[in-house]
Amino acid sequence: MSQFWKPGGERPQLLDDGEGGVLFFSPSASSSSSSSGFGYGSIDKLRQRLPVYKYRTAILYLVETRATTIIVGETGSGKTTQIPQFLNEAGWADGGRVIACTQPRRLAVQAVASRVAEEMGVKLGEEVGYTIRFEDVTNTDKTVVKFLTDGVLLREMMDDPLLSKYSVIMVDEAHERSISTDILLGLLRKIQRRRPDLRLIISSATIEAKSMASFFRSSKRHQEAGATDLGPSKEPAILSVEGRGFNVEIHYVEEPVPDYVQAAVSTVLLIHDQEPAGDILVFLTGQDDIDAAVRLLTEEVQSHGKKSHGLIVLPLFSGLPRADQDLVFSPTPRGKRKVVISTNIAETSLTMEGVVYVVDSGFSKQRFYNPISDIENLVVAPISKASARQRAGRAGRVRPGKCYRLYTEEYFVKQMSSEGIPEIQRSKLVSCVIQLKALGIDNILGFKWPASPSSEAMIRALEVLYSLGVLDDDAKLTSPVGFQVAEIPLDPMISKMILASDQLGCAEEILTIAAALSIQSIWVSGRGMQKELDEAKLRFAAAEGDHVTFLNVYKGFLQSGKSSDWCRRNFVNAHAMKKVIEIRAQLKRIAQRLGIVLKSCESDMTVLRKAVTAGFFANACRLEAYGHNGMYKTVRGSQEVYIHPSSVLFRVNPKWVVYHSLVSTDRQYMQNVITIEPSWLPEAAPHFYQQRQLGPSIH
Ligand SMILES: Nc1ncnc2c1ncn2[C@@H]1O[C@H](COP(=O)(O)OP(=O)(O)OP(=O)(O)O)[C@@H](O)[C@H]1O
């Protein structure tokens, strides 16, 4: 049975609800443990006033005596920033050991590490550091508290399978159930058996605490009643931290809104007009929505409308260059109000000091994969109640706040699902399988997951990896290709494309393409000005397709001296181009480490198209019916797909193409499309495509 604690006393008292249930604190806005008398004092005083502080002794006692502690607490209760400090103060980082705290998102890792360094009065990168993909701000001799993405911790296992330098690993925001979190939980469970000294903390605002506890519970044989001389008890403890930050008043719309972007913009203007000072954080779904909202608000500001006087409008999404992300966290000038328009990257762990108002569209972009058709879509889908609470929790962190939900209360109560579906059950598993293989997990189908993925999805992934030449007949990583692909921290299809470009002599161009494919779009959103955007695209359009068009835009951008003005005139997203340059520089470093020769193919686009095919052959499609927007079928699954209107090949009807991704609206649309020759497919993946499968295409 799980055990519960209440605060107070040196040695915490056991609290049991009698039914093995978890004592969740009500998410309603009515209570506020720290709002009264919370003045601005020293950092120590602020720390002591956080709800989690009262549980300091209980947490340390549990970590001492239990292998796994599950901590459930409201947003803003202080889990992320305080628990690693408690552990450090209690000596868990003595003797050269390190305390790790993982987050699903890079932005949260950076922000939380800076905050904890500030609270501890140390320089970021010394006692407190962080590591995210492509960026390591730690000091091997000094760092005692390290924040990192769960993906990076998985990569660290490749060099140190038992994660031996860590004394405690805190997996934070576990409720998000990202693929990397789930893989990590599965592997940590294995590591625990070999390292009784390792302690795990799983923390979240809303987590299925009991199912998580049973996942970490050992078999009966290993169970113990309490701590013994042989080590900590294997029985996981559940601690529910009661109390929250400041009051957040929730407002709902009375009627469903027809256009959430427009509704978000109107709500921002209304708040600005009617509410006292305080920044606004708006949650939309992706770069396209965000660009549209930023434009609508900026136009309003530029027209000097009274309603928007003093507004500073800033976008926030993962593809944003570092300097622009930093703007979001910089203090708001006196007399101004910042409006940050974000994807769900701002949903968890972040504290933006000035934010008093949150506007929640109720949607986010989510991945959905169908293993039968082998199609993965990124679709705009309703969020869960857990996400809605996280979003509201971005207000009320340093003072009371308000959250405006752009959906009705009835919808929230009756229709919104309480938790999202774990990402592992709705994603393609190619990257996940290669990671497990690289970690020496041979029996992938027997791996114990917190939530099992479908076996069809597993088999599909094994099949693709085999065709990519990454796995051999015994389903082991091939040498060198498999090991190299596993080493590049990108989608294996992109990694394979990069390796192929070495042999084909076009790595210079392919690195640019790989960088452009890893951001959402290099164009500004077409909302409301599609015609101008289409005309601008024509200036760069290449007959071969979008990948070569990227190269033309990239050249133009460099020739303009990376000018924002050039971007504006050409409807190119300046933020996105700066990010492409950043990512390309990182990829170049990786390529050099792998010994890839950075050669240019100059104007030979055939080798470049062959390199793309070497990675993306599984996404090959054949034209089935000419038309205004011709109908294609995927070669493997015979699924009906169409070229997306944003592609330069829209309406061109090329006979054979490969695409980078699919998006589903009224139909399945291919995004980022390039023309190929069918004879390249069996060349690139002989096991995947036999010549007879390809058949004749229409002429
Ligand atoms: N950068 C910051 N500036 C000012 N206050 C901060 C900052 N970061 C954290 N805080 C304060 O510490 C509190 C606790 O933050 P913390 O991230 O530890 O909470 P949490 O329980 O992990 O919540 P969540 O799950 O929402 O991230 C915040 O509500 C805020 O009052």
Brief summary:
The protein is an alpha/beta fold. It is built from 24 helices and 23 strands. Helix 17 (about 505-515) crosses helix 19 (about 545-560).
Rounded radius of gyration (Å)? 26 Å
Q: Catalogue the unreliable spans.
A: 1-40, 221-229
Which structural class best describes the helix and strand composition? alpha/beta
Helix residue percentage:
25-40%
Shape, per Cα inertia axes: globular
* Name of the top-level CATH class of the largest domain: Alpha Beta
Number of helices, where a helix is a run of at least 4 consecutive DSSP H or I residues? 24
Question: What is the beta-strand fraction?
Answer: 15-25%
Structural commentary:
The structure is a single chain. The chain has 24 helices and 23 strands. It is of the alpha/beta class and 699 residues long. It has four domains: 14-241, P-loop containing nucleotide triphosphate hydrolases (Rossmann fold), CATH 3.40.50; 248-423, Rossmann fold (3-Layer(aba) Sandwich), CATH 3.40.50.300; 428-485; 488-698, no CATH class. The strands form five sheets. It has an eight-stranded mixed sheet, with helices on both faces. Strands 11-18-15-12-14-13 form a six-stranded parallel sheet, with helices on both faces. Strands 19-20-21-23-22 form a five-stranded mixed barrel. Strand 20 and strand 21 (640-643) form a beta hairpin. The longest helix is centred in the last third of the chain and has 20 residues, at 574-593. The radius of gyration is 26 Å and the shape is globular. The termini are far apart. Adenosine-5'-triphosphate (ATP) binds next to helix 3. It catalyses: ATP + H2O = ADP + phosphate + H(+). GO terms for molecular function: ATP binding; ATP hydrolysis activity; RNA binding; RNA helicase activity. This is RNA helicase. It holds the Pfam family Helicase_C. InterPro entries: AAA_22, DEAD-box_helicase_OB_fold, DNA/RNA_helicase_DEAH_CS, HA2_WH, Helicase-assoc_dom, Helicase_ATP-bd, Helicase_C-like, P-loop_NTPase.
